[in-house]
Amino acid sequence: MSDSVLSVQPSAAKAEVLRISEVVIRIAGDSQDGIQAIGGFLARLAGRSEQEVMTFMTIPSTISGGPSIFQVRIGSGEVLSAGDEADVLLAFYQHSYEGHIHSVKRDGIVIYDSDHVEPKPEWQEGRRHVGVPISTLAIEAIGGTAKDKGKNIFALGLLARMFDLNVSRLEALISERFGGKDPSVLRNAQVAFQAGYNHSPEGLGAAFRFVESQRRTAQQVVMNGNEALAYGVLAAGVRFGAAYPITPWSDVMEILRREMPKYGGMFVQCEDEIAAISMAIGGSFAGRVAVTGSSGPGISLKMESLGWAVMAEVPLVVINVQRGGPSTGLPTQVEQSDLNLACYGSHGDAPRVVLAPANVEECFYTAIEAVNLARQYNVPVFVLSDQAIATRIEAFPEPPLEKICQDITPDLSPVADYKPYDLSSPNGVTPRVVPGTRILSGRYPIAGGLEHDELGHPSASPKLHQEMTAKRRKKLQALAATLPAPKVYGPPEGNLLLVGWGSTQGPIREAVDRARAAGDSISALHIKYLNPLPQGLENIFSGFNLIRVVEMNDEGLYGYGQLAGLLRARYCDPKIRGINKTDGLTWKVREILERATAEMAAGLTKV
Amino acid sequence: MISPTVTFAPNGRDNERPASAPALERRPLTRKEIASDHPTWCPGCGDFSVLALYFKLIEKRKLWQEKITTISGIGCSSRFPYFVQAYGAHYIHGRSLPFASGVSLSRPDLHVFVFGGDGDLFSIGGNHFTHTARKNIKLTCVAMDNWVYGLTKKQTSPTSPLGFKSKTDVWGAIDQPVNPVKQALAAGATFVARTTHSNPNHILQMMEAAMDHDGFSFIECLSECVEFNEGAFDPSNPRKGGAFNPVPAGHDVSDEAAAYKLADAPFPGYFGLFHQVSQPSKNAKEAGLSAAAREKLEGLEDWEILRKTFAGMR
């Protein structure tokens, strides 16, 4: 248990202001209490204050209600993860209190709604308890029939006072959020915020103030990973797509459905997952790269269609917001167990590209990159996000939209002749000419799932199948040759290399920072291009005694997870093994450290 | 926020496209120019008629090769696009309709035709048939119905009549068959017609009307499998002693219940237009949503629209 940055003597004068550089606040309640709204306000405030921020939330897999938490970590310096433990716990109910008290750091602060929570004496030692009748005070402030509505905004007011947050900016955020609704809604929110802000609870001891952020970045935007993916797809110029609702993918599709008409496009809700990918492939076939996406079972259902796009060499982007599996699995919890499916799903030899963004900002840019790789190589491209990145809010510099927004309208001017599957094309990459284009030779291409000749007509010639299979593979080999080796985080040589992919980059790097500070020789490597793999990984691996692939998936039959399996198959290196877990939760920094330390203790010495 | 190096290729381009060529003067296409591979169907197959009349439709209506897209799933009849010298796609089993919907919705300038068999459209693709019909997506779907799985050599199909002996029902089919016309009506199709391979003029007439319909148009075309279901459709063929019964002259095509009743007539039933109503297609409704959204944006560039959204996320 680490110490809280908020540690002060209880006897300290009330006027004391303690300077802090970061804080982790955990808000625990029920999913309908609007706790995500408090966290969202705090995250956006941090974004506007040039601070770094990262959030973490859990949502129950129920229709309404159920315990839920929202954790936000705000820092004036670099924030790599949402934090293992909290400096402040804001608990609305007894179950929130009892369930999360042990996640509070030593000398941390517990603020509880004394209308609902009976604190336990044995838990009060080492954690300052501050009771506030939040429900009663919020009702008193707003008046009458408001029930529990507004207590989240009241609590936001409390936190604003406690951390000396910028009130005018917060009030502006509240106005933006509630301004479009019934005027009484905004008025109630403002009143609740002021009431919370003006309430001075007993026993808090001190107020806190963030040191000035060192960052002087451009304008920041604040969003979660699903939003970043959706807006990345729009920036890439995609104007058609189709999907079926499923958690946690649905937010992406809701945004695309709502936003695409503004850009002259449309995003269609289909009758099922197979229809959705088929409609997207139809849209791509007709000219402009289209997008589909899903989670869990939905991705399994799309696999036959994906194989058609590989065979017919039609570009496509498939977004997979991973959740726990197999089958219905853990709909609202995180896992990285779809990597094998993304790389190998579908029958036959069906090479495709697989990319995994490491954070919210990368979600935006990876969506654009996926569209461009699909266009350049006429191949389906998977984007592997996950539930954690999907729901996590981060602030990042606003992208230079004028420069990066693309127009990918196809060229329909006539061509003399066209062979869609020309075997003489370098690297197997053939150009694409789409319906609507007049072909003067009078020979038109057919796109099909049968093995075909250079014009797309069916052929079962043994030689042709071998050549076409190689053509589809060579495209990805050509892509691999352009992919630079990722940079090692930390020194390029040492005892242990932690390898990761996707949303785990932050906690892995934080673990490396802490281990190095404690004198351990640990570095990290994060792989974004998972299929094909980039060049030069073997050179990086040769600098370390031990390689452990940190993944949120099972250790498998032989002691390593899915990326570790790919790396072992590729590099035949027995020092590659796994650090895995499948508890449906993101990696805590401490968990990675403990596992890494144990691996080093048991590991081989350098040969 | 973590990534100092975001790898990203700005303004990524499609791979090299063949050089544009000057468009030449053109004359209407001939049958020879429209025909592609020699069909792989068995001699005498009803599918030949449907293909011949599709060529005739293209000739008669002076359609250009780049303006039509022929799409199919899997099955004997689904080999169709390979035999047409124009853009086409031979998609996976049962999913031709959603694929074709993707083409239709994203490319309003193309005529989209879907050809499929009874297994493709009413068994594995049954769900898609219902939803494409109810969404009224602008395309023409021709079900070449032979009451049997032919490509896999005689198994029971969803339209096989009770008692039909096949390799999967050696004692005769026991499951109630699908009635494609009733299925289309129940799904809300806005154009429903029925024709048969043995009446070429009638096929062309139905195809023309279907092509002109602004929405989802469905044609059931009986198409005899001479190999595994020979003579099944003789009762509908006057040359084989049967009767070709046109839809009665007084039938009101906007009356759905009347169409349903007509479709219930015992085999060989009626041929012609059962049902047609004018309702906005999904294509039109989606275009309307987009026009309304864009009107509010007063001519902003795409990147400016996105910037406006990001302004609310600062």
What distinguishing features does this structure have?
heterodimer, A: 607 residues, alpha/beta, Pyruvate-ferredoxin Oxidoreductase, domain 3, Rossmann fold, 4 domains, six-stranded mixed beta sheet, five-stranded mixed beta sheet, globular, B: 314 residues, seven-stranded mixed beta sheet, two-stranded antiparallel sheet, 10 helices
What does this structure look like?
The complex is a heterodimer of chains A (607) and B (314). With 607 residues, chain A is of the alpha/beta class. Chain A is built from 20 helices and 23 strands. In chain A, the strands form 6 sheets. A 6-stranded mixed β-sheet of chain A has the order 3-4-2-5-6-7, sandwiched between helices. In chain A, α5 (167-178) packs antiparallel against α6 (183-198). Chain B folds into 2 domains: 31-278, Rossmann fold (3-Layer(aba) Sandwich), CATH 3.40.50; 280-314, no CATH class. Chain B has a 7-stranded mixed β-sheet with strand order 2-1-3-4-8-7-9, with helices on both faces. Chain B has a two-stranded antiparallel ribbon with strand order 5-6. In chain B, β7 (191-196), α7 (200-212) and β8 (216-222) form a beta-alpha-beta unit. The chains are: A alpha/beta (607), B alpha/beta (314). At the A-B interface, α1, β9, α7, α9 and α11 of A face β2, α3, α5, α9 and α10 of B. β17 (446-448) of chain A pairs parallel with β2 (88-90) of chain B.
